Every structure is written in structure tokens, then in C-alpha cells.
Amino acid sequence: MMNAHTHNTGRCSISISGLLALTVLSFTSPVLADGPAGAATLVVNNASAGDGQLEPGGGVNAADTIRTGAGSAALLAMADGTELALGEEAELTVLDFVGQAADSIGKFTLEVTSGAVRFATGSFAKPAYTIRTPSAVAAVRGTIFSMYVTDIGETYIAVEEGSVEIRSRRGTKFTVPAGAAMFLNTRGDVDGSLFNPLAGADLSALPRGAVPTDAIRRMDRTLLAATSVPGQPATPRALGLPAAIEAGVIKAEDLPPFATKTPAYGKSKYGTDKDRDKDGGY
Asked: Would the pTM count as exceeding 0.85?
């Protein structure tokens, strides 16, 4: 079951057996390159993995591209403990997944090409995690963060816990702490803003940031509604910091202070949407 993509006939379904099988796998096989990288634990409406439909319990393998349809969402549980949430019309590819061994820290590389995604890291060492988009490379440093990639490759990132190191297409590097958000266009121009992670990811202070904020909130509403059925398994860290705190997975008092001043990367030269329109857009 874990290494096959199966047909999804229901509107919303959750697999207990698939989640348990993944848990057994993660404890019995320290090197995972030859097995599934993870599995879907929840699919709302429709999603695909590789060449087939994805439903709960269906395996996610290295090199698979995961896509969700309109009005759809999905939760993935990876074998290292990483949790991923995907909103509607999202697309990501598992470029590489190699488990920890005696001479390895593990390796997990994703490419996100469209839509809203939330990433909550697992048990691999911090240098193991890399996420690529058309306009940035993110090195994850033990964290929960939300990401939105536009149809022309712009990247929005809001860090809810921990920090993310970003490298733009110009090669410039930035550290984005919890409570800070960042926008990068395909030329490498950057904008930054602050938000309150206890209220959820908010990118609305960034250029055209209402669109990604709405997409992330739609993702959360869809997944929260699907996981609210009593007795059903959920992955609350992938549902964002407020949901994780409410579920007791994370204690608010244990969180470090959030960013309280303008992020060091500051503003790009494109200060307003009007300026961008004048410049001809991206």
C-alpha cells in the first residue's frame, strides 16, 4: 500500500492504517532511499502523486511530483517526521530523500513551483532540509513556515517558528526569523514585513500579499474542517502554529520572542504596486 498510488473515490478521507504503517517504517529502517519517502494522511477532493491519483495511505516517493486540484488540499507525513500541508492547485516535487545513516545527516530536498504549502521539519539534522522555488532557495533551520509561489515564480514566505535562511537569485543571503515574512520576485528583489505568528501566517503587508495570505488561510480552513472529525488522526504542526498550540503539540510559553523590528533585509526598491506597474511588473 505504501509504495503505490491509489485512486481517491471520496471527497475527503483519512488513513489510520497508512499513518501507522509509516510510523513502523520510520522506526525500523534508518536508510530510506529505497523505500517510500512518506505517505498522504489526508486528501480533500483530489490530488496526484507521480502518474497516479493520491489518496490517504498512498506512498510518496523520491522524484514524485505532488499536485492538488481546485478546491483541494492534502497533508503528507514524511518518514523523517516532516509534515507538509498543500493548498489548492499546489505543486511540489520531492527532489531527494535519503534517510540518516552512520555516515550521513540525511537529505531532504523539495521544489515548490506553485500554490500554498506549509512545512514543519522532522528529525533530520538542520542542514538536511532544502526547499527550492523559481526565485529562491530556502535552507530550513528547524521550523514551521508557510510558503506561497505565484504562477510567475514569485515567492512569499512567512516563518511561524524557528528560522529560514534564504538565498535569492542574485545570490544574496538572508535569515528570516519567526514573526517575519519575505517576498522575492524572479529578479531577486526583496521585501520584508512582520506579523504575529500566534494569529497565523500573514503576508498581507508584502506587495500583493493579500492573495497568498488568502490562499494559505483557505488551505488551513479546508484541512482543519477535514481533521475536526472526532477520532481521526491529524498532523497539527502542518496546520500552523495556532492549531499546534491549541492541540497541545507546541506550548506558547516555550516559544522564543518573535521578531520585533524591521528584518535586516529591509525593503526592495519596488516600494508599491504602482511602482511595479510603472516598471513593467516582474
From this structure: no
